[in-house]
Amino acid sequence: MVAAPEDLLWARGLHHEHEGSPALLDVCVGVREGEVLSVTGPRGCGKSTLLGCLSGRLVPARGEVWFDGVPLHTLPAPARERLRRDRFGWVGSEPHLLPELTVWENAALPLLLSGAGRRRARRTACEWLERLDVGYCARSRPGALMQAQRQRVAIARALAHSPAVVFADEPTAPLHQADRAQVLRTLTTAARSHGITVVLASHDARVAGVADRAVTLVDGRRVGADAPPPTDAPVRPGPEGRAACSLSA
């Protein structure tokens, strides 16, 4: 299996189940550095499961996941945890902020956990909070914020430590339309100005429209004209005994 030279993150032949029900069936995908890739499809099609496998939160039952030359699918749990902390950011449909911390401390948490000084961590976190129009909330506790404000704080937290990849799983689900537009602008601007790759899952076609490319899942399978062939199809071996094909659409 050989990824395209520009692929920072790629996966081949992913299979995964939830309580015996198939969630991913032979899914292949590649993501380029600095690209915004949307994963679309109806609810329950496997979008969240795919992001979980690509980010190392889930280990696929079968298949490969590689990030920057590192095989996530074979890493032990502590190594995957360090990789998620240092190189990845995550935004879900719920912010999951720590109520005992202030807003800026929540946004700065990945920096603080990685050993950054408190002053630098606070300055960087507050810069992202300002970009998301919640800088005035920096000293507040999450409980004093509205849902849309808390979600913006969660997005600032995902971006503050300059990750290589941000995984955004329905990040605008709790937001009104105007808030959705600003959040999406921030994510896409970050991808282009800071070289951050964004993998964005959403069933909303308007959200997916901000991406550079889109892949579609239906019932756990990747569909569409750019979907790669199944892994049991004949392939020509490439270097290191892996199949020679690119996963980029």
From TrEMBL:
Residues 3-244 form the ABC transporter domain. The keyword Nucleotide-binding applies. Pfam families: ABC_tran. One of its GO terms (molecular function) is ATP binding. Transmembrane segments: none annotated. Keywords: ATP-binding, Nucleotide-binding. It comes from the Bacteria. Residues 221-249 are annotated as: Disordered. InterPro entries: AAA+_ATPase, ABC_transporter-like_ATP-bd, ABC_transpr_LolD-like, P-loop_NTPase. Belongs to the ABC transporter superfamily. This is ABC transporter ATP-binding protein. It comes from Streptomyces chitinivorans.
